[in-house]
Write a structure and sequence with these properties.
Structural class of chain A: alpha+beta
Radius of gyration of chain A: 24 Å
Distance between the termini of chain A: 36 Å
Chains: A alpha+beta, B mainly alpha, C mainly alpha, D alpha/beta, E alpha/beta
Number of helices of chain E: 10
CATH topology of chain E: Rossmann fold
Order of helices and strands of chain E: EEEHEEHEHHHEHEHEEHHHEE
CATH architecture of chain E: 3-Layer(aba) Sandwich
Number of strands of chain A: 22
Number of helices of chain A: 19
Shape of chain E: globular
Number of domains of chain E: 1
Structural class of chain E: alpha/beta
Strand content of chain E: 25-35%
Largest sheet of chain E: 8 strands, mixed
Oligomer: heteropentamer
């Protein structure tokens, strides 16, 4: 739904939560909008091809449970939120930030527009849409019988309300982005100049029209269709309440409502949620009578699953071997919408010009050096040995799950230390003083400072392994401050271009849209390496132009871009990953396939 | 004049000098448990501290993903960890680091607490009042939380800074203890005697009062030594442990965070847990003997 | 008594004030802030929007301005807004505090319930095998890291035997306010509570044992014996009351340990309380929450020591609070 | 002679020190009659307190060995199990301790502590008990009884507390009282008051009293009979007047002449050479006082010194008393360093 | 000129209380005490516990701060001197303490204990020091090898002599002996008292002898001051005070001494009863309306009593 959601993957809690809300494309779409500080990495996997890309290890996981028995009448299910900490409980699409909140939301609330396996909006949901000739106007119609849990019908003004909240000057969340701003009149409203959003027109309670400033294919994947029950939570526009009060109101935290298949009965803050069936669900009667969703520590999740306490749970990758042979469950997995990478700092963010400025004299300015470092990393071993095949070497910056855009001809740089050495030799990085480490082209000592994030047992050996790999080709790489940094300290340095850092290990979760300009564009503040080039600018622009509504055109552009990235190596992708989920064998009609979110109401348990 | 016979007597008396250390040793010798503990502890410590002689630290720290989670075998006496590193070697280095940390914290905090406590106890009155108000305040601080905040703040997180931080929160309890005993000691006439003999205050504190508190200090230190070794472990578990370049017992024990490792990879965490338990028990049993040595009523020897 | 409590509370104000200042300054020293990385989920957000939000939360002001604003609100009972949780810190903490207090009280009560009888046994029958057994248990409890013990308890009783729930504070299916819910809460408390309590007994057993051994030799105990008081009554009527004094005196400082221990217990048993929230807020740089939790902990210790004094004055006639 | 209340026969109290038993009270026999104060006097370490605690059974049973007999009302207290002994302690046998500051439970009210022995030995109603306490308080010279009844020990002065301790010991009308240094911890004027009080009380109660003290002045004021104790043995027993008028044993005589008093005035006081031997190093064969009077010929001592009845009721141990004289000059005490 | 002249000495201890721990009252431990010591004499301060006699002694040597009055030692006022100046005089005043167990540091051997004052005031080579200490230890009747022993290896009397040896090391002029024998058994007490008299002659010492034991005081002192509640009630020669006590309190104190002649015990009891009666009838002549003693009035040149102006 959102044009593109890229999400930072912090390795911080990799172990805690390589945890995917894998269950749903829908879910993942907004997951993309999570800020969630990386806790939830990978939480949004979206569309997926069966299994994996070509490089995936020979693991073969199903996407849906095999039990095809009839769901029992009035079944009860227990679902885990695998987390080392309590969920936050901001249960509103506009305001929430944590992944776990997103998981809860997906049970009782949904978008008006459904999405398909390609994350594009469809007419299968609670509303239908129509795009105008010039792709600038979207007309939305809510179907009959879509009702909030309190029985009120869902109205167009409820969707308008979401836009009014997101664009409100007091709004302090992270969902006011350029797709929202693209609505005609939104910038003026956002600055407080007007009270109306001129680009949104309410035709009647079930029909409304959105007008956009620019036509962009992003609308098809990024359209915000989450309505807010204005009558229930109170109206900010009339002064009935304020944004701040709304955020902390009981209507959002204690007994929120939506129009999803289940209603929230009770919340034990930070700990568990009890849902009951929404008999009036517009798609039909949900299969389960009730659902308990509770926080389970990653340390104990496998035991809980084994014991049968939990019907559905994500499984941290490092516990794969333990869970593999548990016989009361079935493992589902898909390749996650994420990749880990090594970033090479090459410049600075210019806050005045609001753009990245590449420094040609930066320590990491040598393309050969960057390429060599990529060759030096033995990612295949890490994936196989450390993650038992649940991770595998990355090749390009558009991950293989975007089947249409991932360029398979780009093969990445597989472990090849000899080639790396050759590259360095040729580029003039030679060990001139005989200390075992190469000096730079000018014969100066070369010490590369490497920042990596702490968290989980694997973070440290991986960082260590890379440093060994680089040492093996004669590069002296040292950890910044001699230790791993926690999430905030790490990103504080990376964001602010701390000169202490030359390279860093980061991770991005990608959303439903392959467009990488938010991460690699000249004006993207998230382009932490500060890499820029004219060619890059050109390609990224073309990828989101109106022409790009043509799939073939867009594909070609992105193939070129992937080639460019392979050649220039602003970042070196290290691994792609599987997201693993365990389902008890009694679970039926459950699938993690993208686009199957709409079937949530059919999930059930058999005898 | 001094006769030959008396000279012998003098020599005998000199030899008979029952210093605190001697008394402690005598007490330990008479307590089998303490003796065994001492031998065991010394064995552990000597092995750990001499480990750099036969272990190449660089090599030990080297990650090798081809050998992760190996079971104990001849090449790896205690198997390997998630980075394929030899657990036995890490156990030795870890013991050394953990013990160094525990000991340094105990000594630094002990010294600081002792100084402050002696000053408050010796002078009493106004000085004591001021110091105690400060200590009262410090006692209110939730120290674990503060240590965590400090760990997040310090840019250069190493054994050294870690020791400093822990010491910063470990001294006031000691100061309190020393001070209260010091206040009692202060009322005793040998202190008054020294005052009337014109002995300067600092000398009275160091040479008169301190020796009389030394047994208390030693007893307290043995106990806190055990605590301080444990605290590092706990912080590691919470994710605020030492950098991985400094293996410690805590690093190894903190592997025990999920059932798989607890059940199936016991060789990583169990030896370290047992070692810490054994060390703490040893220290405690020795401490018990030291305590008896300091209290003539309870002596076995 | 009332005057005493009032005075102690009054003394608490500057202490808390100082505490808040220290923790506030320290919290600000932590690298990054609550907004760092918060917008990475959505690269379409412009840097201006990020700055605007920093501005809204006052994160760009110098610390003293922020502190001043915070204190201004704090005296009115408003401890600020949690960024991560998007709600006032006070309402955020309300539920967590209750959980932590419940857990801590449970740990405290169970640890006393275990430690006092053991301490008495060890003291009364000192140097017998009973004593040796108890002392050995005590060393083990002292030497075992809490988290290792808690994990083992969890695996053994939670998973292998399945006697107790393995996480959370209550079974959500049970209707609120009923007796069954109370029992469920209790059921959830048992494992974390026992894990904490069994390792928290060290100090109490140690002090009680030593004190009883000392008190046994006191003159007034001889007086009691010379009155013909039976041995059991000598303990219950004379020795215990005197020996329990130091236990009461340590109550306040016991609380420091409980707070530290609750961090581990809450993390291991997924028990939503202050400790867990603290770790979460540290990693999330949620300064207001960190500050508030530290202050609550500090206040708990202060109140605890005050309680110690009140209890002491109740059982020790020599201490009379004017 | 009045009726015998307490009869100690050949009592031997030994303490376990590193596996061996050493007798601190070494074969002591003594009879106390009704309405009689028998003082046991000696320096610290002579075994007098050990004797007192042996009679009432307050030694640690694990480290102490008791032999001989202590007969009270026809029962040998040493052979009684604790439960039976408890029926006697506090009832027939009362005890007054030395230090009133520590002898009272700091956490219980005065009334409670005086009532306590009644709980175990008398069947009295609550009000009757209180009445009896107030009576006792009046007896021991405390004027505002009802107020003191509710007070705690720390609120009272030392003299008052010693009165309370006495009241406790008297609570069940014991036939026998043991007072272990009852005035030592008190100021001289208070001491005088307590002495007068005890004399007064004794007249009323008729009980026998064993008074343990090191103060010959107290003995002279209070005792009817005196037993002088040295190194675990009685060295001289006599009627009080006899003892002061005609002390015989060298130890008794040395003690008396070392007290500064009108008799000695500004002259040099007599110094007893050496120190009281510890029970471990004690030579139990011959006269135990012999090493401290080295100028007396060894022949003067008996081999196994016995108590000789030199006149009716006047016993002296060892024959050395016959040859005893004070030395002419003070002997340089070079040998003090022997411990 | 007298060696020591104490004029209107006051030692008040504050009682703190209330909200800000302000001084709410004073304990008047010593409340206007006057006396003089001539060189070579032994002056006894007697009284019951809490009467202020020990505090007086401690105030003279500086262990308690005098809150008022003067302590003239050789004509110089010690009470107002600062620490530095006082140090010059302090070697001439030494103290002997009551408890021979706590007054010696158990962790130091005798050599270090006795040499302590030497090390503070004189720079001696270890050899000289050893010689001086050994001479002194022999002087107090202990064998030379004992300097390497520790206090717990000695008996009470021997310890007290070690304490005395320490006080004598600097050849002081005045010794304040605070209950030096009250912790000792009678036979040992005799030993120490004899010894103190002996060294008084040899070293030309002046004693301020503080004790609650009237027998001991009478035995050793030339003049006696009787203290009660921080003030003097009577002062005179031993003869004056014992044979002719004037103040009611003095009488009571003397009557309280146990009678060493058993025959006279009931006379003594009666005497005490009479004094008790006198307390009820004649109280006003001895105490003012606040229960405080009057100032001393000379009765004879050597004998003064605290009675009301019109007196007796």
């Amino acid at each position: 739904m959102k044009k593109r959601s890229l999400m930072l993957l912090a390795s911080l809690m990799l172990v805690l939560s390589v945890f995917l809300a894998a269950c749903s494309g829908d879910d993942s779409a907004d997951g993309g909008k999570d800020k969630d500080k990386g806790k939830d990495k990978g939480k949004d996997n979206e569309k997926t091809e069966e299994g994996s890309g070509d490089n995936a290890a020979e693991l073969d996981f199903p996407l849906a449970v095999s039990n095809d028995a009839e769901a029992m009448e009035d079944g009860e299910m227990t679902v885990a939120m695998v987390a080392g900490e309590p969920f936050e409980g901001t249960l509103n699409r506009n305001f929430y930030s944590g992944t776990y909140d997103a998981e809860i939301l997906s049970y009782f609330d949904e978008g008006l527009l459904d999405t398909d396996g390609d994350y594009l909006i469809t007419n299968e949901g609670a509303a239908t849409y129509e795009l105008s000739e010039d792709n600038k106007t979207l007309t939305l119609k809510i179907k009959d019988g879509v009702k909030w849990h309190d029985g009120e019908p869902v109205k167009t003004s409820d969707l308008l309300y979401s836009y009014q909240l997101l664009g409100h000057p007091d709004y302090a969340g992270n969902r006011y982005d350029f797709i929202i701003e693209n609505v005609v009149g939104m910038p003026e409203y956002h600055e407080g100049k007007t009270k109306e959003i001129s680009g949104i027109e309410i035709i009647n309670d079930q029909e409304m029209k959105f007008t956009y400033t620019e036509a962009s294919p992003s609308i098809l994947s990024g359209f915000w269709s989450y309505a807010t029950p204005r009558h229930y939570v109170g109206d900010v526009m009339t002064g009935e309440t304020t944004i701040k009060d709304l955020e902390s109101s009981d209507k959002i935290r204690v007994n929120p409502i939506g129009f999803g298949p289940y209603k929230i009965d009770k919340i034990v803050p930070g700990e568990s949620v009890l849902y009951s069936r929404n008999d009036d669900y517009w798609r039909g009667k949900p299969a389960l009578k009730s659902i308990v969703q509770k926080v389970v520590s990653p340390a104990t999740i496998v035991e809980s699953v084994k014991k049968g306490d939990i019907d559905l749970a994500t499984i941290p990758a490092d516990q794969y071997l333990t869970v593999k042979d548990v016989d009361n469950i079935e493992l589902l997995a898909q390749v996650d919408y994420a990749y880990t990478y090594i970033g090479f700092k090459q410049g600075k963010w210019d806050a005045k010009k609001k753009e990245n400025v590449t420094d040609p004299d930066a320590k990491m300015a040598s393309k050969e050096l960057r390429q060599a470092m990529w060759y030096a990393m033995d990612n295949a071993t890490i994936g196989e040995k450390l993650y038992h095949g649940l991770r595998f070497p990355g090749t390009s910056l558009i991950i293989p799950v975007f089947k249409s855009f991932h360029d398979e001809s780009v093969e990445g740089r597989m472990f090849d230390p000899e080639k790396a050495k050759q590259l360095l030799d040729d580029a003039g990085f030679e060990d001139k003083d005989g200390d075992g480490f190469r000096e730079d082209q000018n014969g100066e000592k070369l010490v590369i400072n490497f920042a990596s994030m702490s968290g989980g047992e694997t973070a440290e050996p991986i960082a260590k392994a890379y440093m060994q790999n680089w040492a093996d080709i004669g590069l002296k790489v040292e950890l910044v401050d001699g230790r791993l940094h926690d999430f905030n300290a790490f990103y504080d340095m990376v964001e602010n271009d701390d000169p202490k850092i030359d390279i860093y290990q980061g991770a991005w979760g990608t959303g439903s849209d392959p467009d990488p300009s938010g991460l690699y564009g000249r004006t993207a503040s998230f382009n932490y390496t500060r890499y820029t080039s004219e060619k890059n600018d050109e390609l990224l622009k073309a990828g989101t132009s109106e022409k790009a509504f043509d799939l073939e055109y867009r594909k070609d552009i992105y193939n070129q871009w992937q080639e460019l990235m392979y050649e220039d190596v602003p970042v070196a992708p290290t691994v792609y990953r599987y997201a693993l989920e365990a389902a008890n064998k009694r679970v039926v009609n459950y699938s993690i396939e993208p686009g199957k979110e709409s079937d949530r109401y059919k999930w059930g348990v058999a005898e | 004049m001094v006769t030959v016979n008396q000279k012998e007597l003098i020599a005998k008396e000199k030899a008979n000098n029952p210093s605190l250390l001697k008394t402690i040793w005598r007490e330990i010798r008479h307590d089998k448990l303490a003796l065994v503990s001492l031998v065991l502890l010394l064995g552990i410590i000597i092995t750990a501290y001499s480990s750099p002689l036969f272990i190449d630290q660089e090599q030990l720290q080297r990650v090798n993903f081809l050998e992760t989670w190996e079971k104990p075998s001849e090449t790896h006496l205690l198997g390997t960890d998630d980075g394929g590193r030899d657990v036995f070697g890490q156990l030795l280095l870890g013991t050394r680091n953990s013990f160094t940390i525990g000991l340094s914290v105990t000594l630094i905090a002990g010294l600081f607490g002792l100084t402050i406590g002696l000053i408050a106890g010796y002078f009493g009155g106004f000085v004591d009042n001021i110091i105690m108000r400060i200590i009262d305040f410090l006692m209110v601080l939730p120290s674990l939380m503060f240590i965590i905040v400090f760990i997040v703040i310090v840019p250069d997180y190493s054994v050294f800074t870690f020791v400093l931080m822990m010491s910063a929160f470990a001294w006031f309890g000691k100061a309190r203890l020393i001070r209260s005993k010091g206040l009692a000691e202060r009322e005793l006439d040998y202190i008054n005697a020294s005052k009337t003999l014109g002995t300067p205050s600092w000398k009275i504190m160091v040479f008169e009062m301190f020796p009389n508190l030394s047994s208390l200090v030693i007893v307290n230190m043995t106990l806190t030594l055990a605590v301080n070794i444990g605290l590092e472990t706990s912080l590691t578990f919470l994710g605020f442990g030492l950098p991985a370049s400094t293996p410690s017992l805590g690093t190894l024990i903190a592997f025990a965070t999920n059932p798989d490792i607890v059940q199936n990879k016991w060789w990583v965490w169990l030896p370290a847990s047992l070692l810490i338990l054994v060390m703490m028990l040893c220290i405690n049993y020795i401490g018990q003997a030291v305590k008896r040595a300091s209290d003539a009523r309870q002596r076995l020897a | 008594m009332v005057k005493f409590i009032f005075r102690r509370l009054l003394v608490m104000i500057p202490q808390l004030f100082l505490l808040s200042l220290i923790i506030f300054v320290l919290a600000k020293q932590m690298p990054g802030d609550a907004v760092t990385g918060a917008f990475m989920g959505n690269p379409n957000v412009t840097p201006e929007q990020v700055e605007k939000i920093r501005e809204q939360y006052g994160l760009n002001d110098p610390w003293y301005v922020q502190y001043g604003a915070w204190v201004g609100k704090a005296v009115k009972g408003d401890l600020g807004q949690s960024y991560t949780h998007k709600q006032p810190v006070t309402s955020l903490l309300a539920g967590r505090v209750a959980n932590t207090i419940t857990l801590s009280l449970f740990v405290l009560i169970v640890s006393y319930a275990v430690a006092i009888p053991l301490g008495i046994l060890a003291g009364r029958w000192s140097d017998t095998w009973v004593d040796k057994l108890i002392v050995t248990y005590n060393y083990f409890s002292f030497a075992t890291p809490l988290f290792v013990f808690a994990l083992l308890m969890l695996f053994v009783f939670g998973f292998i035997l399945g006697w107790f729930p393995t996480g959370g504070s209550v079974d959500i299916r049970i209707e609120s306010g009923t007796f069954a819910q109370f029992m469920s809460k209790l059921h959830h408390l048992v494992l974390p509570g026992l894990s904490g309590a069994l390792l928290a007994t060290f100090g109490t057993i140690q002090y009680l044992r030593n004190d009883i051994i000392d008190t046994k030799l006191k003159d007034f105990v001889k007086t009691a014996r010379s009155k013909g008081v039976p041995e059991g009554k000598v303990y219950t009527r004379h020795i215990l009351r005197n020996s329990l004094l130091p236990i009461a005196a340590f109550l306040g400082y016991e609380i420091t340990g409980l707070i530290g221990g609750s961090i581990f217990l809450e993390v291991i048993f997924s028990y939503p309380g202050l400790g867990q929230l603290f770790i979460q807020s540290i990693t999330g740089r949620d300064f207001t929450v960190v500050t508030a939790i530290v202050m609550i902990s500090g206040a708990a210790v202060i109140v605890g020591t005050m309680l110690s004094d009140v209890i002491l004055s109740a059982i020790d006639p020599r201490i009379r609070i004017e | 002679m009045a009726e015998t209340v307490l009869e100690i026969e050949n009592l031997r109290t030994s303490f376990n020190i590193k596996g061996n038993y050493y007798a601190a009270v070494d074969g002591v026999s003594l009879t106390v009659h009704k309405n009689e104060v028998v003082a046991i006097v000696g320096e610290s370490g002579c075994g007098k307190s050990a004797l007192a605690l042996s009679i009432i059974g307050l030694h640690n049973a694990k480290t102490t060995k008791l032999e001989g007999q202590v007969n009270l009302k026809g029962q040998n207290l040493l052979s009684l199990p604790v439960e039976k002994l408890n029926k006697i302690r506090g009832k027939d046998l009362g005890m007054i301790f030395q230090d009133p500051m520590t002898a009272l439970n700091p956490l219980a009210t005065v009334g409670r502590q005086i009532e306590e022995p009644m709980d175990y030995h008398m069947k009295l109603s609550k009000s009757a008990k209180k009445k009896r306490v107030l009576e006792l308080l009046e007896q021991v010279g405390i004027k505002n009884g009802p107020r003191v009844y509710k007070q705690y020990p720390h609120e009272l002065s030392g003299g008052m507390r010693q009165r309370i301790v006495i009241a406790i010991s008297l609570a069940c009308n014991p036939v026998m009282l043991i007072a272990d240094e009852p005035t030592t911890a008190l100021d001289v004027t208070i001491q005088a008051q307590i002495m007068d009080l005890m004399k007064e009380l004794q007249r009323i109660t008729d009980s026998g009293i064993i008074l343990i003290t090191h103060d010959l002045g107290v003995v002279a004021e209070m005792a009817d009979r005196v037993a002088v104790m040295y190194a675990g043995e009685f060295v001289e027993i006599a009627d009080v007047n006899t003892l002061f008028a005609n002390p015989l044993h060298p130890y008794t005589r040395s003690l008396l002449s070392s007290i500064p008093s009108n008799m000695t005035d500004k002259e040099e006081l007599h110094v007893i050479e050496g120190i009281v031997p510890s029970i471990q190093k004690l030579d139990r064969g011959g006269c135990r006082f012999a090493p401290r009077i080295p100028w007396i010929s060894e022949d003067a001592h008996e081999d196994n010194p016995m108590l000789h009845e030199v006149e009716p009721g006047h016993f002296v141990r060892c024959t050395c008393y016959k040859d005893f004289h004070f030395p002419e000059e003070r002997v340089e005490d070079e040998n003090y360093v022997t411990t | 000129m007298s060696l020591l002249n104490v004029k209107d000495l006051q030692v008040h201890f504050p009682i703190r209380g209330g909200f800000f721990r302000r001084v709410v009252d004073q304990v008047r431990a010593v409340d206007g005490v006057n006396f003089e010591l001539e060189p070579g004499e032994t002056y006894g301060l007697v009284g019951e516990s809490g009467c202020g006699k020990t505090t007086t002694g401690r105030a003279i040597i500086g262990l308690n701060k005098a809150t008022g009055g003067e302590v003239l030692f050789n004509g110089e006022n010690l009470a107002t001197m600062n620490g530095h100046d006082r140090k010059k005089h302090i070697r001439d005043i030494q103290m002997i303490f009551q408890d021979p167990y706590s007054s010696l540091n158990g962790r130091k051997n005798v050599l270090n204990i006795i040499a302590e004052p030497l090390r503070n005031f004189e720079r001696l080579s270890p050899k000289e020091e050893l010689t001086r200490v050994q001479n002194m230890i022999e002087r107090v009747g202990l064998s030379p090898e004992s300097i390497y022993k520790y206090p717990h290896q000695f008996s009470g009397g021997q310890r007290q002599r070690i304490g005395i040896a320490r006080a004598l090391m600097l050849n002081p002029k005045l010794i304040i002996a605070d209950e030096p024998v009250s912790a000792l058994d009678v036979s040992v007490q005799a030993q120490v008292l004899n010894f103190m008299r002996e060294i008084q002659k040899d070293f030309g010492l002046t004693y301020l002898f503080i004790s609650h034991d009237l027998g001991v005081i009478k035995h050793i002192c030339d003049r006696i001051g009787i203290m009660y509640k921080g003030r003097f009630v009577e002062e005179g020669t031993a003869e004056d005070v014992y044979t002719n006590p004037q103040h009611l309190y003095t009488k009571r104190l003397i009557a309280a001494i146990p009678e060493m002649d058993p025959v006279k015990r009931f006379e003594k009891m009666e005497l005490r009863e009479q004094i008790n009666v006198a307390y009820r009838t004649e109280y006003d002549s001895y105490f003012d309306k606040d229960g405080r003693m009057f100032d001393l009035k000379p009765l004879t040149p050597t004998h003064s009593v605290a009675v009301h102006q019109g007196g007796m």
